[in-house]
Amino acid sequence: MAANAKFWDRLAKRYARxxxxxxxxxxxxxxxxxxxxxxxxxxxxxxxxxxxxxIVHAPLVGDYLATDISSKMLEIARGKAEGIGNLRFVQGVxxxxxxxxxxxxxxxxxxxxxxxEDKEAAIAKVFDLLKPGGVFVSSTVCMERGGILKVILPIGxxxxxxxxxxxxxxxxxxxxxxxxxxxxxxxxxxxxxxALFLVARKPA
Length: 204
Ligand SMILES: C[S@@+](CC[C@H](N)C(=O)[O-])C[C@H]1O[C@@H](n2cnc3c(N)ncnc32)[C@H](O)[C@@H]1O
Description:
alpha/beta; 7 strands; Rossmann fold; binds S-adenosylmethionine; seven-stranded mixed beta sheet; 23% strand
């Protein structure tokens, strides 16, 4: 975990400068997510990075907790979020998060599930953190085969210049959500190779 945090710390400034790869798809994901917000919503976003998504969403909800393992990512996020009173950035992993009384209304995991040791454990944790009827919004790189990346990534990870990346198909991710108890409400890939955007609901 520490090695992974160091990798993301080193990347933080470059990540903050890099443009969104598909702006139209990103805007669509923001809008689809916001359809689940109310002014009272209690929202958790884990793996929030430099906070760009949190900053857009927080003014629309009651309380927004954004977490990440990288202190450098959060440093940049806090700098960008000055003046947004209901937005808190906290360093840590998903396992550390406790639910508010009654549970979160919405949990976001954007570009993060494929970067975790154990996505099933993360999905189960999100299920526990949500209120009945709450939704888990995620966007995940789904690569079943990975090709040469499957060789390069472990080497790069060993030397500290690449992160942990897990390989799985979009269908497998949907199956993991269903196994945890979620109902898939919305599933969308802007192009066949794009990240899979999912809205999964915890039954009421
Ligand atoms: C690809 S970036 C995505 C950032 C942001 N969600 C976005 O969509 O731009 C992945 C982020 O997850 C964080 N991260 C990686 N592993 C993590 C873990 N186990 N727990 C929490 N955050 C993690 C990294 O520090 C990084 O900020």
